[in-house]
């Protein structure tokens, strides 16, 4: 089954053709990051407009790259939630129009379920159940992936997402957007014990996460040094922040893994590219004889292959949308 998949939930316009949920035939991503960089974050209205400008060309190009005609598309899939509502609506209406014109099913995909499915493309042997850490600019979740379509949230952030924490700190340091990759690079040469950071434990919710205190503490450190006109040791600060984010995530994921007993952990989303988190998780999984699935960096950020992959499994469970499908800024992953 060949699925044309569309992803426009934030600042990447992405289109892909995916076969049977596991094979990418062709995929393209048009990133708007440069456009938003001057504002230090994504401007929703600009994101929507840019999606409109490129989505048709991107789709034509993906079909050309794949050497396929439109008549060979068996279904159209689209990220319909969560995300920036205007941005989501561009992809949703485009996907609806294509599915209607081709008279093929329209498959709605929860964006974070899509991120989880990035693993199915990277690891053909991987099958649920497993525990998945989903960490991006807008999400920080620990999910029990019981089956391809049955998921339960074990832990969630109470405030900011981990990616937001990196992005906001980077903005104040003038490091540009997105901040995560720059902070990651700078932290390679930094001393991670230079700035002890706060750690939060949420009463009666041992797997829940919190990043706003960490973000504020880091911003206060920066402002303090700026007021005293001290030079900011960005490498040490980046290393200390990366360590604190990893210390928030890794023990909780391992707790979730222990509780579920699957001995399989996966990590997805843009923040899954973080080298500190990857290294700490690798160590923790090795120590507990747990298989770790880390998708390649190309599948960590937003892309449409992941949407096409998850769509296949949603389709097998008859999750096909009507023409009145809407987009949602927020939606529980367990509801699909
Ligand atoms: O999944 P994604 O591309 O978009 C969504 O938010 O859905 O994730 C983007 C986030 C940004 O916050 C970015 O700063 C962060 O992923 N990120 C990283 C790294 N690469 C991207 N954070 C930490 N370390 C990285 N290497």
What this model shows, in words?
With 336 residues, this protein is α/β, with parallel strands linked by helices. It folds into 2 domains: 2-116 and 300-335, ATPase, nucleotide binding domain (Nucleotidyltransferase, domain 5, 2-Layer Sandwich), CATH 3.30.420; 127-297, ATPase, nucleotide binding domain (Nucleotidyltransferase, domain 5, 2-Layer Sandwich). It has 11 helices and 10 strands. It has a 5-stranded mixed β-sheet with strand order 3-2-1-4-5, with helices on both faces. A 5-stranded mixed β-sheet has the order 8-7-6-9-10, sandwiched between helices. It is globular. The two termini are 21 Å apart. 5'-O-[(R)-(carboxyoxy)(hydroxy)phosphoryl]adenosine binds next to helix 5 and helix 6.
